[in-house]
Amino acid sequence: ARRLHEADVWLLKLLPRSIIEQLRGEVYRETIITHPFIEVMSMYDESILIKLCDRAMSQHSLMPGQDLFIYGKEAHHLYFVVTGKLSYFEGSVASLHASAEVCSGEWMCQQVLFMKWEHCGRTTALNPCELALLDAAKFREVVKKNPRILAFCIRLAMVYVQSLEDSFGKVTDVSGGSRDSLRDIVSEVVGSNICLFEADDDELVMQTSRPS
After folding, report:
1. Quick count: other Cβ atoms within 10 Å of Cβ 50?
2. How many of the other CB atoms lie within 10 Å of CB of 189?
3. Which of 30, 60, 82, 97 has the greatest CB tally within 10 Å of its CB?
4. Window from 85-89, 94-98, 196-200 with minimum mean pLDDT
5. Which helix (H) or strand (E) holds 121?
C-alpha cells in the first residue's frame, strides 16, 4: 500500500497557512537538499528552500509495473526517489533490458530546471515506489522573486548546460550529471570571481537544444 499523502488528509486544509508551510518543509526538506544545486541555493538563502518545499513540491506513488514517464513527452519535474527502485529504458523502442536503475536517494531529469527537455526513454517501477516531485515551472517562479538567487541560478545554468554540451556520449533522463560532477559545477560557480548579476531578462529557462 502506498504512503498517506497530503491530499488524502482533508483536515490539513483547515490548518493555518504557516503550519502547512512548516509541515511541507518537514516532509520535503531532507529529500531535496540532497541535490547539490538546491543545497547550495539554501546556503545562500534558507528561505528559498522553505518556499520550494511549500510551493513547488508534490508526492507521487507508483505500483510495480507503472510508468513514471514515457519517451517523447515533455518533462515538467525533477523526480526524487524516496523509496523503491525504478528501471529506465532508453530510446523509443520497447526493450526487455533496462539501461539503468534508479534507487532510493537518487533523482532523475534535473535538466528540466534549466532547459526545455523531452524524455529520452521510459521509466517503470520495479516495486512500490514513493517519489517527491519538484515542479520546474514553480521552481523558476520561486527563484525569479529573489534577484540574488536568480543571478546565481543563471550562472549555474550556464555552466551546467555547457557541461552537458561538452560531455561525451548521449545525455539521457538519468545521466545528466553525477552527484560528484554536480558538486564540481557548484564549486566552479561559487569559487569563480564572476560577480553575481541581475539579468535583464529574468527568464531562467535556457533556450538550448538537447545535447546529443
Report:
1. 18
2. 20
3. 82
4. 196-200
5. strand 121-125
CB 179 within 8 A of CB 36: yes
Look-up: residue for cell 534507487?
Answer: 103
Whether 119 contacts 138, CB under 8 Å: no
Please compute, for residue 32, the number of CA atoms within 13 A of its CA located in the half-sphere on the CB side. 31
Q: Residues 6 or more apart from 62 whose CB is under 8 A from it?
A: 68, 84, 86, 125, 128, 129, 131
DSSP 119: -
Sign of the CA dihedral 26, 31, 33, 37? negative
Name the phi and psi angles at 94, rounded to 5: -60, 135
Strand partners, 78: 134
pLDDT tens across 99-152, in order?
Answer: 999 999 999 999 999 999 999 999 999 999 999 999 999 999 999 999 989 988
